[in-house]
Design goal:
Largest sheet: 8 strands, parallel, barrel
Order of helices and strands: EHEHHEHEHEHHEHEHEHH
Structural class: alpha/beta
Strand content: 15-25%
Bound molecules: cytidine-5'-monophosphate
Distance between the termini: 10 Å
Radius of gyration: 17 Å
Strand order of the largest sheet: 1-2-3-4-5-6-7-8
């Protein structure tokens, strides 16, 4: 089985990120570069992680007009990332443009297309927050609705919270790749993640990839923490 652990490099500098990559590349399946690291360190840090032989998940959650998103996805393909995110609330046309840009640009470069992952409802939003922006539905309904929009538009994967995995597995094609943050082992200090599953529970529920940040990078020994999580999956 491939290693499903994607370590979230939620650190502010390239130096800190590359140190983690060096320590953790042998025991992780890839690394997530998000808005903080990308804004401070730029595409160069992605190139360096790729040069170290690791897979990159570029989590910039594109959300714009279809043409602009397609160009951003094309740029991500040039950077040779293996996964990237778009907001499904950008609508079908935007999602189709993103998937098409991933396929076409990868084909031109002779590489596999990156997985374009749809983000449904941010876990920081509840029904009250959705209502405030004009969406009078409950969160679960909106997640399922956006997941269907994404699937119909041709997306091959979604980011979802641990507690959404089982329900989504029932309604999505079996080939859909589910990428799940909110993973906790039970050993770390409490933080802002409220609805969590352990790595083993998330995989059993149907997650293909686990995005894990603080339980690894904030551990006293990140390498040991990652090894323990990997062992817990066997
Ligand atoms: O440190 P922690 O394991 O909570 O990190 C999880 C990562 O997943 C962070 O990069 C966070 O931004 C991201 N994420 C999340 N919840 C979501 C979507 C993304 O925690 N719903």
């Amino acid at each position: 089985m491939r290693n499903p652990i994607i370590v979230a490099l939620d650190v502010p500098t390239a130096e800190a990120a590359l140190k983690l990559v060096e320590q953790l590349a042998p025991v992780s399946g890839g690394f997530k570069v998000g808005s903080e690291l990308f804004t401070s360190a730029g595409p160069d840090v992605v190139k360096k992680i790729r040069a170290a032989g690791a897979l990159v998940f570029l989590d910039l959650k594109f959300h714009d007009i279809p043409n602009t998103v397609a160009k951003a996805v094309a740029a991500a393909v040039q950077l040779d990332v293996q996964m990237l995110t778009v907001h499904t609330s950008g609508g079908s046309e935007m999602l189709k443009a993103a998937e098409q840009a991933a396929q076409e640009n990868a084909w031109k470069l002779g590489r596999p297309p990156p997985l374009v992952l749809g983000v449904t409802v941010l876990t920081s939003l509840d029904s009250g927050a959705l209502r405030e922006v004009g969406s009078d539905v409950n969160v679960e309904f909106q997640v399922r609705r956006l997941a269907m929009v994404a699937t119909k538009a041709g997306l091959r994967g979604l980011v979802c919270s641990p507690l959404e995995i089982s329900a989504l597995r029932k309604s999505l094609p079996a080939s859909a790749q589910l990428v799940t943050p909110g993973i906790r082992t039970g050993e770390e200090k409490a933080d802002d993640q409220k609805r969590t599953l352990t790595p083993k529970e998330a995989v059993a529920a149907g997650a293909n990839w686990l995005v894990i940040g603080r339980p690894i990078h904030a551990a006293e020994n990140p390498r040991v923490a990652a090894e323990k999580i990997l062992e817990s999956l066997n």
